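Mods, move this if it's the wrong board.
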Amino acid sequence: MSANPNPEKLRITLEELSEIGSPAAGIVASGSTVPGETSGVKCYGNVNSMPEAPALVQEKGSILLQGWCYLGLAGLVGALAAWAIAEPGFVDGEGQHWGNIWILPLLVTLICLGFAVAESIVERSLRKGLIRCGLALPLGIVLGFLFNGIANVIYAILLSVCAQLGVVSAHNPAAWVARALAWMVIGGAGGGVYGIIGQSMKRTGYGVLGGAVGAGLGGLIFDPIAFATHGGATSRAVGFSLLGLATGVAMGLVESALKDRWLYVTAGPLAGKQFILYKPQTAMGSSQSCDIYLFKDAEILPHHAVLQLKGSRVHLVASGPAYVSGQPVRGTRVLESGAAIQLGRYGFKYQERQR
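Not the wrong board. Structure tokens:
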């Protein structure tokens, strides 16, 4: 059977072509079915869509990460260590032995060294610890001797004034005030070193103020303690320990009370730690050279983000994945007080002091 030499041709008009629907028309970039359609066609994403912030595990902050706590403990340990070293060479009365000369400068030095070690332990940074201790040791010795001499001159002048006013007994509270004022110089030296090794003039000012307040309180109760313990080694051990403890606690409280801008860690290994923003630029990352060292997180880059102070505003400049209030940061983001920041497994809350 031969083929038909004249097969009927298939013809499609333009009107019929326009009535043919395209299945691709049902695909949208919303990740849902097409509005108004029941075909159930899904979208498989959009290259311009932004990833959501990963869920964070909120952790309860430890009291040991509070500045007043770890600085107070560091001051206590440093003061006790200074007493233990110098006490064997200390003589009561008018005589001068090496312990009499070294006890207060050593007190300042080891308290400052304690502050440096405590700060570095809290931040888990060996590199910063070595740098801070390297600065604290010579500064503590030099300023310790310098301010010890100044404190002795002030104490002698105040005792002379007390004598002219008829105060002839160390049991008189006026004599206690004289010692407290003299010891404020010693505490101010310790607080000043703490600020200097933190490389911030504002922090130095807070340290001097807090150190002076704490040492003044310690000096005020030194003589009553000596009377209760009948003087000697025990009174010095208790009195100097209280001086170191009060100096550290006061420094932490003063620094916290006067801060302008800060980050409170809400999640991650440093939960409960507070970072006060002193510098024009504060670097954050997994490198120990950063101001805020973020450890134990493979997602954190060596230099992950920078907080820049521009005028009265703080800008977050992100080099790695970062989120502010759940929204991804592309480049730079101005922070508002109360903003939640997320870098890897770390969560922060940015705060500003109300003016």
